[in-house]
Design goal:
Elements lengths: L2 E2 L22 H8 L26 E7 L2 H12 L4 H15 L1 H4 L4 E8 L4 E7 L14 H12 L4 H14 L1 E2 L2 H9 L1 H4 L3 H7 L12 E2 L2 H19 L2 H12 L6 H5 L4 E3 L2 E5 L2 E5 L6 H10 L6 H19 L11 E7 L3 E8 L9 E2 L4 E2 L17 E4 L6 E8 L2 H15 L5 H5 L4 E3 L5 E3 L8 E11 L6 E5 L6 E6 L2
Parallel strand pairs: 1-17
Antiparallel strand pairs: 2-10, 2-20, 3-4, 3-11, 4-7, 5-6, 8-9, 9-14, 10-11, 12-13, 14-15, 15-18, 16-17, 18-19
Helix pairs in contact: 2-3, 3-5, 3-6, 6-10, 10-11, 13-14, 13-15
Family: Belongs to the gamma-glutamyltransferase family.
GO molecular function: hydrolase activity; transferase activity
Protein name: Gamma-glutamyltranspeptidase/glutathione hydrolase
């Protein structure tokens, strides 16, 4: 079948509405949300290119943060400038995205990170994916506990100080960033079912907010304030946790305080795949690290669109069977952050609400959007696939990346990694390579007509860090709306 030059939507969502009406949290509601998954990656449609830092590489490199939201990246860089390391910067950037990108990174969702410490020669996967609550239907929020674990294991600064900037953003207000404005336009039909969401994200005329409009989230700010003051325990077993559980049950979502108390972060060694004379580190199932590793085994220096389509055509049928997806498309909605510092600490994280804006319902009084439980219709986290390349012998780090956009995003990481490490292309040039994807079921896609296949945040250090940090190049994807920020030595 010829490639699909899919036209991007123009704001009229009525033909895409997955279902009307039922305001309760029911199986019908979740089945309706699953309708978004059959859309062939419409959330990745863009006709504009992102803001990017002018310098992707500098002498005197100290640290860098790349995130899907520009203000989040700047907050992460500021945290590092004030004594933090890459892990602290990533945590602060995440909490900022929970305010600025709640469609993909809200407190009700979850994610997965790969973290590396060169000095200790240690690399971990930190898994806090938004898995189903005991009674199903709703996911247990994982992001707060996941970020606390990352900070405790790899960070330098107290956790409270990393939450504070996001709290201030929510309480004081900010302008709607481009990525959020895009999602508000695309998925406005879901927000109208929740009065609290409509009150925050609609203007006085009932239309979705546009880029540059002012908005405040006082209830979310209050919840972040409790996380800052009381830490993880306040969210998972304290008064805030009880408020989240009670609020969820009030709208029919079977989330209990025991679900929150019993939530655990899983920390394990990454899958280690030999790559050149180094290690390719990926996550284990149920996230999508194996897809990147398998694709790297298929690429052989030819990363033309035809070769990309051929690789994905070979890999996707087995993946769909493994994930039990049938013909459904994996959830493409995610937000990512990647950070590195000159001491050799690096982090690559991907976050999701299991669907754009999660279940599009808040736990009343908290400002926290709940996430639906994963299902076999594409709702979920199976495409999250942060990756790193480094040496397990001397601790040097060469590459770190995370992607949004479902399976095409995961495969795009293999494309970029192949380009910079096998073909010696600069990271900036590798990010601009045209992308293609074949779902293995007869449908091919390319990037003609405005479709974007994946949105990456990546770091490439050609001679490794910490030995040669000045060789580190950072780049956010031109297909997204984020920012790559670099901090130099004073």
């Amino acid at each position: 079948m010829p490639a699909n030059h899919l036209n991007c939507p123009r704001g009229d969502s009525k033909h895409r509405h997955p279902g009307n009406g039922d305001p309760a949290w029911t199986v019908r509601r979740l089945a309706a949300l699953a309708g978004i998954a059959i859309l062939p990656l419409l959330t990745a449609c863009e006709n504009t290119r992102s803001i990017a830092s002018d310098a992707t590489q500098i002498d005197g490199f100290r640290a860098g943060v790349v995130a899907d939201d520009p203000r989040a990246a700047l907050i992460g860089r500021t945290v590092i400038a004030n004594g933090g390391n890459a892990a602290d910067g990533a945590v602060a950037a995440y909490f900022a995205m929970s305010v600025l990108m709640p469609s993909a990174a809200g407190l009700g969702g979850g994610g997965v990170c790969i973290a590396h410490d060169a000095e200790e020669k240690r690399t971990d996967v930190i898994d806090f994916l938004p898995r189903a609550a005991a009674a199903g239907q709703v996911a247990v929020p994982g992001n707060v506990r996941g970020m606390a674990a990352l900070n405790a294991r790899y960070g330098n600064l107290p956790f409270a100080g990393l939450v504070g900037p996001a709290e201030n953003l929510a309480l004081s207000g900010s302008t709607v960033p481009k990525a959020l404005a895009r999602d508000l336009q695309e998925f406005d039909y879901t927000l109208r079912e929740d009065p609290a969401l409509a009150a925050v994200f609609h203007d006085l005329n009932g239309a979705p907010l546009k880029e540059g409009d002012n908005f405040r989230q006082p209830e979310l700010g209050a919840s972040l304030g409790q996380v800052r003051a009381l830490g993880v325990n306040g969210f998972y077993s304290g008064l805030l946790g009880q408020k989240i559980a009670d609020g969820a049950q009030a709208i029919g979502a079977p989330l209990t305080i025991d679900d929150l108390r019993n939530h655990k972060v899983q920390i394990y060694a990454p899958v280690d795949t030999p790559f050149l004379d180094l290690s390719l580190w990926t996550t284990s199932a149920p996230s999508g690290g194996s897809l990147v590793a398998q694709a790297m085994g298929q690429f052989s220096g030819d990363n033309s669109p035809g070769a990309q389509a051929n690789v994905s055509r070979q890999l996707m049928p087995a993946r769909a069977q493994q994930e039990g997806l049938g013909g459904a498309t994996e959830n493409p909605s995610a937000a990512t952050v990647v950070a590195v510092d000159s001491d050799g600490v690096a982090v690559a994280c991907a976050f999701t609400m299991n669907a754009p804006f999660g279940a599009a319902r808040t736990a009343p009084g908290t400002g926290i959007i709940l996430a639906p439980a994963p299902n076999d219709q594409g709702i979920g986290f199976s495409a999250l696939a942060p990756v790193m390349v480094g040496s397990k012998f001397n601790g040097q780090l060469y590459f770190a990346s995370a992607a949004a956009g479902g399976a095409p995003g995961a495969l795009a990481q293999a494309l970029v990694l192949d380009a910079v490490m096998r073909r010696a292309l600069p990271l900036d040039q590798a990010m601009q390579l045209p992308r293609a994807f074949d779902d293995g079921a007869g449908q091919s896609y390319d990037e003609a007509g405005g479709l974007s296949l994946g949105r990456l945040n990546s770091i490439f250090c050609s001679r490794g860090t910490p030995s040669s940090p000045d060789t580190c190049q950072l780049r956010n994807d031109y297909r997204g709306n984020g920012l790559a920020t670099i901090l130099g030595e004073d």
